Amino acid sequence: MSTVSTERTAIAAARAVAMTKVYGEGETRVTALDSITTGFDRGHFSAIMGPSGSGKSTLMHCLAGLDSITSGSAFIGDIEINRLDDKALTRLRREHVGFVFQSFNLIPTLTALENITLPMDIAGRKADREWLDTVIDTVGLRDRLGHKPTELSGGQQQRVACARALASKPSIIFADEPTGNLDSRSGAEVLGLLRRSVTEMGQTIVMVTHDPAAASYADRVVFLSDGRVVDELRDPTQSIVFERMAKLETIGEVL
Amino acid sequence: MLRATMRNLFAHKVRLLLTGLSVVIGIGFLAGTLVFTDTLKSTFNDLVGRTSKNLSVVVRAQSDFGTTDIGSNTDRKLVPESLVAQVKSVDGVANAVGSIEGSNLLVTQDGRPVKPKSPGPPTLAVSWTPSNFGTLEFVAGHGPTGPGQVAVDKSAADNYDLRVGDPVTVQTQGEPMKANIVGIVTVGGSSNLAGAVLSVFDPQTAQRVTGKPGYFNQIDVEAAKGLSQQALADRVAKTLPSGYEAVTGKAVQKEQTDSINKALGFFNIFLLIFAGVALFVGLFIILNTFTMLVAQRTRELALLRAIGASRKQVLTSVLSESFVVGVIASTVGLGLGLLVAVGVRGLLAAFGVSMPTGSLIVKSHTVIAAYIVGVLVTVIAAAAPALRASRIPPVAAMRDGVALPERSLRVRAIVGGVVTAIGAALIAGSIRGSSGGAAARVGIGIALVMIGVWVMSALLSRPVVRFIGAPLVRMFGTSGRLARSNAIRNPRRTASTAAALMIGLALVSMLSVLATSTKSSIAAVVNKNLGADYVLTSDSFQGFSPDVATKARQTPGVTAVGETRVGAAHLNGKRVMLVAVSDNIGQVIKVDMKSGSLDALKSNELLVSKSKADSNHWRVGDSVAVEYPTGGKTQLRVGGVFDDNDLLGNGGADYLVSLPTYEQNYNTQLDAIVYVLSQPDQRVATANALVDSLKTYPQVKIQSQADYKDSISKQIDQFVGLIFGLLALALLIAVLGIVNTLALSVYERTREIGLLRAIGMSRRQLRRMVRLESVIIAVFGAVLGLALGALFGWAVVSTSGGQLNRVVFPVAQFIGYVIGAGVIGVLAALFPAWRASRRPVLAAIATE
């Protein structure tokens, strides 16, 4: 047990230890995360799944330092983020975390290229030119760099968001339903892109999704229900994920 | 529908507050002005009533010179002492007392002139007898009964620590006179008379002090019991020699209240202009707020349309929201107005105007005006956004992020361009013409250019903001770049936010140009035309005894002394200011004769400035009908035409007469300005000798040419300072506008801000971004305002004619204004930036 856990610590890009998140007080008290302990490996593409209300988004928000936790600990690498103040959290996000959100991912007043380099600009760092070129070519948007977000399709916008996350070489990228607003073809493009960045560039990605097809791109799927980790799957296929989800949702209904 | 409107309104209290605040301030000032002037009117009218309680009839010289001009009563032809006994003997007269008043000055033992606390109110000498009409009440000592006795008002006694028994010097029209204080008085219950300093003498002494021995200004008559004022007036009138009249006390009271009301009316209008500017600026703020609110509520309004609300209902909904805002803001503004009135009263007290503490007068017209103006301004401002709201298609409810169709800016470009061009053409066409018509055309031109530029300002915002933002981007990197792009994101919004500041600063900078230009012109005029080495003036507007000139003449080293006196007269039926000058005026002021000669003064002829000679079509040798306040009517021959001269009479005299002419026709002989020429090689010695010989006249300032220029500059600065103080109101509203726009923008951009925070922007950077956006908007408004102000200032100076036509731009001040605008921007952003930095990061991810 102890060996496993130290091994985990050594390689986990992010992990939760007895992490609990409670919303509200008294009558309206809701336990969103119920003492979750889990980790996400470096260089892996992980997916978090679960029926709505299972706490999957909350888990991601807490792990990424976007939301506070009630008890337990959240780590990014070796850093226990729940002990950090806003300043330190901001610096942590700047240096170690990338984000891709479901919608409203880009700043409308900036061009695609400006959006991609924005995190570096905010941090006052110079972009690594060579790496930036690699990223831009990977997302395939070289001819769209000067365009404003409103001049891009939904899929293109999301690819710009991926490029922005990748460009600063974060320790971990959190993706929150990145294909939720896209048609299936654009969705597949974005997922392929995320997959390649893990395989080819060694990036670490944690993605929240409710779409079994999206989850099938991941190396590992963690299933959540009522704020607890109820299942786990390595090298998932779409049908197995679909099956497990169906089971979870039925349980949810029965309960 | 109405219920939905009200719910929506009260659900957003902060928004309501911000929107309403600009109206509140404007209405507060409006109501405050009205309440204050109504209170002043009532106080003064009350005072007039109380001070003439027992006055039944007044006997005085006839004059068809305007009686509503304040002070003209003392300028009337005098009444001989002998008439008092005659009036007294008329059947039905219980008492008749001659009274006289004029200006004088008390000087304390230690040489301090007893002056009002602020310049403006006069220092008056009045006569008193034991059978006086209850006007004055002695709170200490007794009334003056002979030469060497004087009573002063309580304010003056308090301010100068004067007590019964103290010796003072009384300045008269002749030699100064020694006296002792024998009493301290209040006037109708007030410790002074509207800020004036009173010194009270027995009739004979008062006649001596005011230089009218044997004469009175008027005879105050009290009727026997049971006799009406009119009946007595008729009886008395029958006994009077021709040229005199008997007027009822009521009629005199009415004349006095009329003249007070007329003066207060001007004061009222002066203040209301600034309330108007504030409300006009507020209009933009409300327009902007409602436009943003409608944009934010697009989906909500579309939903209402989708479930069956008609266009008209949506329109009514937004309009009634603005109506309610208007009503609430007017109510609060009215309350604020009362505070303003109390504040102004306190301010006046600090300036030495003592008023009986009565309650504030809130007349119905104040309440009505506050509500009508407040509601109208709000509803008019909300009309355009409401119309836009009613055009939202129901389908907008289903779509995400549907923006209202933005009309192209082309219409604005064309309309704004045309209006600006017409305005500019009007201005350009009137430059260098100085007739009244030109001034009016320039005024219209200025208004048109202002409107035109405002219409176009949305268009101008892109290039100007890009330019202003450039150094900020260089200095602050990403925060600066984001701030700049946010500022040009919605050109209309930026433009109308900046418009408020633009209008305020256009007025401020126009005034600055006028002030610096005037100062520079005057300095040039003084350098060119002032021959005198020393200028003697008094620091109040009142003149001083000709004895000063006499003493100056006797001072060693003085080679020439020129005197000037000022008085009103009618020339060919038109009221003008006559300036009387000694016939050696050419020695101390360079007067450039176009035709005729200065020597015409020696034969008591009239000299006219070139511009007035032209507009009246007068030439040398023409005869002009003149009428003096004392009733004298004669013909004056035009003896010469001189080039317009701004030095004569301190700011431009157009009609010059000789001193003998003045002496014959005016009761009061006081010099306004005395010019002294020294032997060239003994200037310093002469100045010292002057100080010595004028020791008894501490109120007379001895100024060298440089001092004189400085003191004129100071006067101009004081006046401009006052107007700036009043314009500060408009600037305050402009700041509120920026706060409002930023707060709503921050609210609109919640998700964007969340995203920025998520990808690593610190709270500090975020605050800086909002702050810089605010600075950019403020500086944009300032730059437009300064450009307009500079243009307007130039236009006004160029058309003002006379010698004040040097245009000087106060560059340092302009730079100061831009920096000030930046500071305003930073201050305005404090609250919105703080709000922005407190928005949760998660907001970006939460999908509504």
Task: Characterise this structure.
- The complex is a heterodimer of chains A (255) and B (848).
- Chain A has helices at residues 2-11, 56-63, 86-96, 112-123, 129-139, 154-167, 184-199, 212-215, 238-254; strands spanning 12-23, 30-41, 45-49, 71-76, 79-80, 97-100, 172-176, 205-208, 220-225, 228-234.
- Chain A is of the alpha/beta class.
- A six-stranded mixed sheet of chain A has the order 6-7-8-3-9-10, sandwiched between helices. A four-stranded antiparallel sheet of chain A has the order 2-1-4-5.
- In chain A, strand 1 (12-23) and strand 2 form a beta hairpin.
- Residues 1-9 of chain A have low confidence and may be disordered.
- In chain B, 56% of the residues lie in helices and 16% in strands.
- Chain B contains 23 helices and 24 strands.
- In chain B, strands 4, 5, 6, 7, 8, 9, 10 and 11 form an eight-stranded mixed sheet that branches. A six-stranded mixed beta barrel of chain B has the order 16-17-22-19-21-20. In chain B, strands 3-13-1-14 form a four-stranded antiparallel sheet.
- In chain B, strand 9 (167-171) and strand 10 (177-187) form a beta hairpin.
- In chain B, helix 12 packs antiparallel against helix 13 (436-487), helix 14 packs antiparallel against helix 20 (705-748) and helix 22 packs antiparallel against helix 23 (811-838).
- Chain B starts with a helix and ends in a 10-residue tail after the last helix.
Net shape of chain A? globular
Distance between the termini of chain B: 25 Å
Determine the number of helices of chain A (DSSP H or I, runs of at least 4 residues). 9
> How would you sum up the major sheet of chain B?
8 strands, mixed
C-alpha-based Rg of chain A, rounded: 18 Å
Approximate shape of chain B:
globular
DSSP strand content of chain A: 15-25%
Major beta-sheet overview of chain A: 6 strands, mixed
Query: Which percent range describes the beta-strand content of chain B?
Result: 15-25%
Mean pLDDT of chain A: 86
Major interchain interface with per-chain residue totals: A-B, 34 and 24 residues
How would you classify the helix and strand content of chain A by structural class? alpha/beta
Tell me which oligomeric state these chains represent.
heterodimer
Number of strands of chain B: 24
